[in-house]
Design goal:
By secondary structure, this protein is α/β, with parallel strands linked by helices. The chain has 6 helices and 9 strands. Strand 4, helix 3 and strand 5 form a beta-alpha-beta unit. It starts with a strand and ends with a helix. The chain binds iron/sulfur cluster. The site of iron/sulfur cluster (SF4) has 13 residues, from loops.
């Protein structure tokens, strides 16, 4: 079972040539980075519990092309997320391109030699690694702070697909009344988003 904070549609990544990406915000993170935009969700929201099979069925509809794993900390649920990607590959006939944000560095993941973490790592095309350091936040679009690296683990994505860009977010109101935000928000946008959530 997967423990999630939210699911949403996102255009993060290369120009939307083949379809949108499904962003999966997983629940829970053992770190406590100052300024973390997910801290409140990790603490306050009861997780959405979803089977990897159900998530794969969402992909089967054909609306989504790629998968973005964001936090929370995806590597705390590495085995389940690896199974999810394998299940999606099975029902759609091809592995989706996967972008993953993690508070770990690539070296930490490799050094631990945890089989489930390595299994998840083997499915990731682009890893954006390292914890968030508020003082190093330069408002870049694809990473929270400049210590984090965009590591292209396969040729599924290319560095030129991620040119320097100003941060932007989109807030979406869904039919069932819940709100999702995609993108890494600037400080002002994060404050506004937290305010909207509290008052919604
Ligand atoms: S690693 Fe990410 S989710 Fe975890 S506390 Fe840091 S910023 Fe928040």
């Amino acid at each position: 079972m997967l423990y999630l904070n939210n699911l949403g549609s996102s255009e993060l990544g290369p120009p939307d040539r083949k379809g949108k990406n499904l962003t999966v915000w997983v629940n829970g993170c053992a770190r406590n980075c100052k300024g973390c935009i997910s801290a409140e969700a990790n603490r306050m929201l009861p997780p959405i519990i979803m089977s990897h099979y159900l998530l794969s069925l969402i992909f089967k509809e054909g609306k989504y092309h790629g998968l973005i794993l964001s936090g929370g900390e995806p590597f705390l649920q590495a085995g389940e997320l690896a199974c999810t990607i394998e299940e999606i590959s099975l029902v759609t006939g091809k592995k989706p391109p996967v972008i993953c944000y993690t508070g770990n560095t690539l070296e930490e993941i490799r050094e631990r030699q945890d089989p489930e973490e390595l299994q998840l790592l083997s499915h990731i095309d682009l890893l954006i690694d390292g914890e968030y350091i508020e003082e190093l936040d330069r408002q870049e679009r694809y990473r929270g702070s400049t210590n984090q690296r965009l590591i292209f683990l396969t040729d599924g994505f290319r560095p030129e697909d991620f040119p320097p860009m100003k941060r932007s977010i989109s807030i979406k109101l869904h039919g069932d009344g819940h709100l999702t935000m995609t993108g890494i928000p600037s400080r002002g946008q994060a404050e506004t988003w937290n305010k909207i959530k509290k008052e919604w």
